[in-house]
Each structure stands twice: as structure tokens, then as C-alpha cells.
Amino acid sequence: MRTALAPLIICGLSMSGVTQAQEQAGAVVFKACQSCHSLDPAKAGMAGPHLAGLNGRVLGSAQSFDYSPGFKAAKAQGFRWDRERLLGYLADPDAVVPGGWMSPPAGLTAADRTAVANYLLGR
Ligand code: HEC
Prior knowledge:
50% of the residues lie in helices and 0% in strands.
């Protein structure tokens, strides 16, 4: 028993194990976003813009998505997505993009927001 568990424990404590667990947690939270968002830039016709390559992307800049005036204004100002801005947006969208159209899924915890932000900014 002891010898069988040892590799699992070592794996769980290693950096890659931790990163994998976080990646997985983010992917689970992202399921709540997938009804409106794809990670495939080629997929059009969804309720929200695609979220591929979000890290450093200018707000409101996904091709073929017609954004709210709030996002168009943010784009004109050249604002870019980073961790702080994304966490703020998911907690309180109006505080980051006034008058935007998205209401984040109800019931997201701070840990959920962190997990999904890491997931989206890491790809
Ligand atoms: C019910 C549909 C819906 C759900 C669910 C949803 N969103 Fe959105 N999201 C939108 C819409 C619509 C917009 C565009 C908002 C606008 O134009 O004001 C948007 C915009 C965004 C943007 C800005 C993208 C850009 O191009 O600048 C991010 C980031 C985002 N959503 C993240 C998320 C995350 C993360 C989740 C899940 C936790 C989520 N959304 C869930 C509809 C949704």
C-alpha cells in the first residue's frame, strides 16, 4: 500500500502536478462559459466572442463579433486583457467595461475566477 501510493504523492507535490490540477480546475469552470464562448477563433455565431489567446489581447477585438458600445470604447482606448483585469471583469463586469452585455455565470467563487483566469490566460 505504502509503495503503491508513494509515486502518486510525489506526483501530486511536484510542480507539474500542481499546474495540471490548476489547468483541470480552470477547464471545469470554463464549462460554464462554453455555452457562449469558444476557444476556437474560427467558430462564429456564438452568443459571446471567442476567447482564444486572451493574454494580452485588446478588449473587444475578436473578429466577427459585434460587441457592445462599452467594449468598443475599451477597444478604442487600447485596453488589454491581463490577470487583474480579467479577475475584475468576472467579479464585476460593469466596473471594468461599463454597460457591457455579459453577466458571468452565477455562483462563481473567487477560487473559480482565479482558476478560469489562469486557464484562459495560459493559452
Ligand atoms: C450567457 C452567455 C455568456 C456566458 C455564460 C459567459 N459569457 Fe463572457 N461574454 C458574453 C458576451 C455576450 C460578451 C460580449 C460582451 C459585450 O459585448 O458587452 C462576453 C465577453 C467576454 C469577455 C471579453 C472578451 C473580449 O473579446 O474582450 C471575456 C473575457 C469573457 N466574456 C469571459 C467569460 C468567462 C470566463 C465566462 C465563464 C466564467 C463567461 N464569459 C461566460 C456572454 C457570456
